[in-house]
Amino acid sequence: MKHKLRKDSMSNKERLFSYLKPMRKLLVIALVFALVFVVSQIAQPFLLGKALDASKDADMHQEFYIYTFVALGLIILGSIFAYFFEVIIMNVSQKVIKNARDDIYQKINAISVKDFDQKTHGDLVLLEIRDMENFAAGLFAVFKTLIQGIFTIIVTIIMMVMVNWILALGVIILSPLSMIMAKIVSGFSHKHYKKQGELQANISSITLETLNNIDIVQSLNNEQEAIKGFDIANEKLKKEGRVAQFSASWVNPSTRLVNNTIYVLIGIAGVIMLSHESELAIIFATMSIGRLSSFLSYTNQYSKPFNEVSNVAAEYENAKASLRRINDFLNLDDDIDEGESIVDTIESIEFKDMSFSYNPNRPLIEHFNLKINKGQKVAIVGPTGAGKTTLINLLMRFYDPTSGEILINGQPYSEITKQSLRHSIGMVLQDTWIFSGTIMDNIRYFKQDASEQEVEEAAKKAHADVFINTLPDGYLTKVSNRSGLSEGQRQMIAIARVMLLNPELVILDEATSNIDTRSEKLITDAFDAIMKEKTSIVIAHRLSTIREADIILVLKDGAIVETGSHIELMNKQGFYHSLYSSQYK
Hints:
The chain is α/β, with parallel strands linked by helices. 63% of the residues lie in helices and 10% in strands.
């Protein structure tokens, strides 16, 4: 059954119950198996007590053998049902984890880019790996312990009352002491497990960052600094983990101390009752050696669930902390898409009195106005931090303006579906991205139904076919983001993607920066051909590449300070002139 991702906010308990609900039939079967197993286990002391009393009477030897063989049969029966119970609980746990892992991956693809900007990639990797493993281990351990424990307590109380109701009352009155002790200790350990989870996420982020940039770290001889930073974070994790484990380790000894004390007190009371059997029989029911033996076994059975809960305290706290992190992530809002219109062609793009800032206290773009008509080639230039990339993020609706609006064909672009809007836009960024797979798969990532011939034609337009045909398996060569292709070759693959998509609007962010001069000229000509009667926006760092642009926007501090063609701006002798001249001094 495919689990559907809920978009409304849930508490941790609601999230857990939503995963368990589809498995309720399996859980009912597991409950039946657990009940049979518990009854078979708890009936044994009663039968053995009867056999002990029967062994003292020469006329009851037959009953002795009957009780003994029935007890042996229950041992075998209980083992069989215990096996099936654990198999079912394990299957339920794995299904829950699979659904939770599916939800995490769906949520990764559903939340907005701004939410990713607020989270480290290492933290997200931990959600799919470590937190899922903690959740799975804790779910299985707690389920097994909880279900068996509840049945054990209920059936044991019934059997204790049958043996001697006054001693049973004493056990019931004293047993909450162990639960109180466990609650006190586990409450202290939980906050440390929570902190431990946060530090583990930090460790993962540091490691992932170093792995992704190991070439830069080594080229700058920064290995020792990287190791030093990791050691500091790892030391903090060690200290917090030690406190968390130490505090959790006190749960089991403390509850065992209480339970063993109760056992001794009940044993003393039972011996006293046995020594005064004739005087107390009428008030407290008959007490015999067999009954006392059975009752002491039930006292152990009764305390066993509390001890087992304390044994899995560490798994429970880990699972609880991981479930909280998983649920917090799943409670993030999905990327809002209130649009209903479909855009087939982009005739115009207009920024109308638009303002935007990532931080309300630090304005970035204020009262920005610009209209781009179909077929125009618009270049955006300016110093770092001027807002060039931010304009692209806004146009792609990774972020929305804080005020003003952006119009597509005169219509607010919030009324257009994001899928339709983004399908009409093709981007080639300076930072390339290659997925693990074949070159063929990478080129048609934007257009999965493209034929092999269409992919090859796009590669030819991007002049990527030259190096592709030299590879051992050609278009079927497997590559990844870290191996198989040079930076320039990855850039050509990214350009081929856009060539294949043939979008209405092309956005280039220094798309040919990693390509040799000859290939750059060929690719630029190919772009000029594909962008005829289409709109294009070029973010330029090398100003020589945008001399032929219809409009050049010069940004500074989020505002347009100059507009015009290359010749017009050079003649103004203004900010653009100084930027252009500085590159050729």
